[in-house]
C-alpha cells in the first residue's frame, strides 16, 4: 500500500481513522434522509467500505479504491441511480453535518466540502 503524500487533506484530518469516523458519521444521516435513503441499499456496510476507500484516495491517502476496483469512474458508477440536484444538495448537507462532527478545523471542513461539491453535482443525471 502506498504511503500518502505529505501535506494532504488525508494527513491533515488524521489519516485512516479520521476517514473511517467521517464515513461512520455520514451514512446514518444518509439512511435517515428521505431523499437519499431510497437510492441506497438496506445493508449499507459495503457502500460504507467503498466510500472509505474512495475518500481515503480522494483526499490524498493511499489509492485503496483503485487498487480494489480499478479507476473510480464515479460518474459512470452513479448513472444507474436517479440523482437530482436536490439529492446532490442533500448528500452534501449530510456530509457537511458529518464533517462538523468529525473534523475540528473549520477551514479544513470547508476545503473538503468544496472538493466534494464538484463531484456531487457532476453525478446529477435527472432534472
Automatic annotation (TrEMBL):
Domain of life of the native organism: Bacteria
Cofactor: heme
UniProt keywords, alphabetically: Heme, Iron, Metal-binding, Transport
Pfam family for this entry, one: Bac_globin
InterPro entries per record: GlbO/GLB3-like (IPR044203), Globin-like_sf (IPR009050), Globin/Proto (IPR012292), Globin_bac-like_CS (IPR019795), Hemoglobin_trunc (IPR001486)
Keyword Iron in annotation: yes
PROSITE patterns: GLOBIN_FAM_2 (PS01213)
Ribosomal protein as UniProt keyword: no
Family, per entry: Belongs to the truncated hemoglobin family. Group II subfamily.
Name the UniProt record assigns to this protein: Globin
Organism: Paenibacillus residui
Lineage: Bacteria, Bacillati, Bacillota, Bacilli, Bacillales
Amino acid at each position: 500500500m502506498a504511503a500518502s503524500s505529505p501535506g494532504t487533506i488525508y494527513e491533515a484530518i488524521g489519516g485512516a481513522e479520521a476517514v473511517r469516523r467521517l464515513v461512520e458519521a455520514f451514512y446514518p444521516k444518509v439512511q435517515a434522509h428521505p431523499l437519499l435513503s431510497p437510492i441506497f441499499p438496506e445493508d449499507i456496510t459495503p457502500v460504507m467500505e467503498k466510500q472509505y476507500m474512495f475518500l481515503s484516495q480522494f483526499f490524498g491517502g493511499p489509492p485503496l479504491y483503485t487498487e480494489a476496483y480499478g479507476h473510480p469512474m464515479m460518474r459512470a458508477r452513479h448513472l444507474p441511480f436517479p440523482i437530482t440536484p436536490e439529492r446532490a444538495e442533500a448528500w452534501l448537507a449530510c456530509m457537511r453535518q458529518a464533517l462538523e462532527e468529525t473534523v475540528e478545523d473549520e477551514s479544513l471542513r470547508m476545503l473538503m466540502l468544496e472538493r466534494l461539491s464538484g463531484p456531487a453535482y457532476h453525478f446529477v443525471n435527472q432534472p
